[in-house]
Amino acid sequence: MPSSSNNNKLAVIDWKAPTCEPGKCRSNCRRNPNCFTNLGEKFWFNTIKESFWVKEEDPETERKIENGHVGLKNLGATCYVNTFLQLWFTNKPLRSAVYRWHNDIPPTEIVNEGEEGASKTITLSFGDDSTKAICGNLQFLFSLLQYSDRRYVDPSPFLESLGIEPNEQQDAQEFNKLFISLLDSSLLAQGINIIDLQFGGTYCYRTKCQHCHAVSDRPSTFYELDLNIKGHSTLHKCLKDFLKDEVLDGDNQYFCCHCQCKRDATRKIVLQKLPKTLNLQLLRFVFDRQTFTKKKLNNSVSFPDTLDMNDCVELENKEDGIYKLNAVLIHRGLSANSGHYIAHIWDEEQGVWSRFNDEEVEEMKSKTLELGKEDDLEGIENKKEKKEKRSEKEPGHQSKNSYMLVYVKNGEESPSSINPPENMLEIVAKDNSFFDEWVDTVKSKRNEKLSIGSERQKEVQGLFSRLPVRENDSDYDWISTKWLRRWLSTDDGPVPPIDNTELMCIHSCVDPSKLNLLKRVSGTTADDLFNKYGGLPRFKSEALCKKCEEFLKRKKEFFNKLTDDLKIFAKCSKTTYKVDSAKCYWVGKKTLKQMKQLATKEFMDTYGMSNSAATPTSTPTTSSSRTPVQKTDDDANDKNNNDSQDGTLDENSSLNLSNNNNNSKKAKTPSQHLVAFNEDIVCLDHGNLNLQSSSRILISEEDWARCLEYFPSATSFASDTPMCIECINIQKSNEEYKEVEKMQALEQRDCLPFLFESQNDRTAKLQTMDNGTFHVIPMSFIQNWRRKIKYNKLLEEEIDNSEMICEHDLSLYSAEEIVDEVYKDEPEITFIDEGEQNKLKTFFKYQQPVTVSMIKSSTTNGNGQTVYETFYESQPTYCKECRSLRLAEEAFDMKSYENQPIYVQKLTEKEQHNYTVDESKKNTDDEAIDELVEISVTGSKAFLKHQKREFSEVAEFVPNKKFKNDTSENARRSSRHRRKRGEYIVHVNSTHTLKQLKVQLLTLFSVFPLEQVLTFPNGYVLTEDDKELGELGVEPHMHLYLSVAQPDKDSIDTVPPGKERTLESGFKGTNLVSVGK
């Protein structure tokens, strides 16, 4: 057992300290192995919520509340359908009519297993007949809404029968018109005339001639009234505007049958018969002819609870004109292309308003309709607007988001009892049984997990209470505090086996220096813990290492002495001794600075502790020598409670030998840390005193003897020790070599002045030559030679053109391609003439020489004019097979890139008018794309293989400039891209789609993606938004033209993108417009 009186680190760790009482310590006492507070035990001794043990929600939350309504699942963007389904369901006459629809062939029941952990559900198949599928699924959906035990049901089969895409935003009012019409025709086929009886009304268009005053009536049937709300604040004004006179004059004159000519006239709508259920559509979604987009009108409209229509229609019984508000349909959102649909519907049986919001159906506490929060949640109400009193206000309600009002004729009686067909009741009952089975299964799993959790809590409470060692009990174990924290933690997953390996010293016993990472646990409790969780090694009470105790004692003494000696060594840098001083010795300056680390390493090596956990680090940048453990709240207290309290030097601090007290701002690199004493003054090759006299200082014989106490095997270098003779001879040889190298470099500078010529001067010089043979050399060779010759050094490399040669020892490039590359602004190769070639050969060797011969000839045309032509031949000639493979590889590589620039130029209206897009060149087939790629490959691009290529514009070579002092017609032109007016650089990846590119251009040019027309310079049009840019042939540094599509004012029905949902595409292609046609 360790003695508490020992003057070592164990004196700080009092393993015999009493057990801390619960709640007394603010954090766990790491200096007390008997402290078990704040290890995570508080959680286990408090009430634990069920949600900790069970992640699944209580299945009863998925059950419909008693006397409540069933919701409908939102499948993405189907909230507009859900609101109308709930509205139609609550209309009892309509629901009764749907129940009366019958199918001669019973539907096929399909049991869906559902996703993992979900309840089984039932769907019905009605064959290939769309009408039967629509009416049958609507009947089944109404049956579920009436008798299902679920909180909400899935309307997917109904939507699939209609052919509606659930993720597309659609027009809610258009959906209502189309479906009511479809349902009417389907029910009339079986003699059920409910739509006309319930929603049908009549009015006539009354036209009066202003000349003969003849009146003409054209009757019409309506199922809803479309009311204009723009500029109107009350429902009464909207109705008045609907019924007002319209003047027909000018080009819109009316043809009078009595006058037999066109006359000025007035026309108005005259209501004749009102329906039992009056649907009023508030036209909030209008088409803006200026922007060609659909927008929403957010002005507030007030409407009453009781609507008196007697002012709008002449009725014999005035009571027939009194209507009661039954439903309000809301669109929450500022835009016509985003937002959410909900419905407020009056529950006649419960006598309350209900709010239908997809899966959530809320019964309003108040019996009056509350719509204020629907506007407030949008954040569009103005605070000043709330304070201002409206000059005109109807008693009742007002809303900025209501788009449909439903009124029911006052006193209209509804069927008291409505039940689905028997077969539907049986299917709903079966679906409810599936739901009940799922609820019972989930409850059983939850109860099982709760039982396991309760047992786990009781077990932890019992074991934790028995952890402390009783007084005078000699049977105990040492267990890692880290594992105890993991055992008491709330992390998911099983508790790992007990792991005490990090607490073990090199002698396979408990390391005394790590008692702060251990807890002393009762032996019987430790038996239970090891039996349940297992683990190794197990340390009993006698496992504390005696050898490490002795080492810690020696270590303490060592650092006490080193602390005093380091103060003396610090003064050595301030004391100056002459070389001829007697009894002085050389010591490295770095050695003195790192004396503490070097001495510590020597001490550890002596005791064989270099690799143990107790070894202090040899680098001054490490802040702690202990094994890293889980950081706890008491770490801050430990920083002030360490060995420095005993007057010792922290074994990880560094010695500052400079006169400046400020810490050096320059961070030390690992190469500055010495491994051995005086390593910085020893010649590594010969073991003698090195030539760097500035790296060492002289110390006295007394200080040297003090160094030998820490480094007894160190080599002594007295003040009269000569420097290494061999190193001196090598240094002289190096100086002679540098002088010779300098002379040879100056000779090359004088003989090869053409290698200093700029690119413009070089190309201008080549233009003046008529015929001749030119030799190819890489620009990389010239650049490397310039860098060396600048410092009078020689370039030791060959002139290598092997990257231009294929495996058949032929050229990969044609002569024309080589010439084009030479005349670039930044070429990768250049030409030299025969004389320059001979000069180069005197200094450098050639690998794979490549030459190009230029032959100029002249002919006379039919007009007597002299025409000059230039031909090129390369040696070796180019390999057709390998060149084709190279072009194919480059074409493939150009389809795969990341973060590369392309140039997009927006055409002005004038340029767009002059720039005609060839519709026949739209890149909708692979042949067009392949042709485009071939054009781009043959253009100006990177030359040598395995290097980055530089791309020019597709399908065109832009003559940007001529070279200096060049007036010839054959002047070579730069292929570097020149920024144009109205052009932007866009960085893209080959995997980006055309749609993503258009979204980027939206921020640059403020043109909506649907209006963007992107074309290549050769006229090809990019049309497929879902394709990747690489597939479309878009390559780095390519130039694209952007023009704005001219909208068709008669047919446009789209809006700017960037919204959360897909823009509505109408109901084309769905069964809403195809069934029955």
Automatic annotation (TrEMBL):
Annotated segments matching region Disordered: 366-402, 611-670
Subcellular locations according to the entry: Nucleus
Keywords (A to Z) from UniProt: Hydrolase, Nucleus, Protease, Thiol protease, Ubl conjugation pathway
SUPFAM superfamilies: Cysteine proteinases, DUSP-like, Ubiquitin-like
Domain named USP: residues: 70-410
Extent of Basic and acidic residues compositional bias: 366-397, 631-641
Alphabetical GO biological process terms: protein deubiquitination; proteolysis
Protein EC: 3.4.19.12
GO cellular component, one term: nucleus
Primary localisation category: nucleus
Entry GO MF terms: cysteine-type deubiquitinase activity
Residue ranges of domain Ubiquitin-like in the record: 986-1049
Pfam families: UCH
Keyword Zinc-finger: no
InterPro entries the record matches: DUSP-like_sf, Papain-like_cys_pep_sf, Pep_USP48, Peptidase_C19, Peptidase_C19_UCH, Ubiquitin-like_dom, Ubiquitin-like_domsf, USP
Catalytic activity of the protein: Thiol-dependent hydrolysis of ester, thioester, amide, peptide and isopeptide bonds formed by the C-terminal Gly of ubiquitin (a 76-residue protein attached to proteins as an intracellular targeting signal)
Annotated Low complexity bias: 611-628, 642-664
Family, similarity comment: Belongs to the peptidase C19 family.
Protein name in the entry: ubiquitinyl hydrolase 1
Organism per entry: Clytia hemisphaerica
Organism taxonomic ancestry: Eukaryota, Metazoa, Cnidaria, Hydrozoa, Hydroidolina
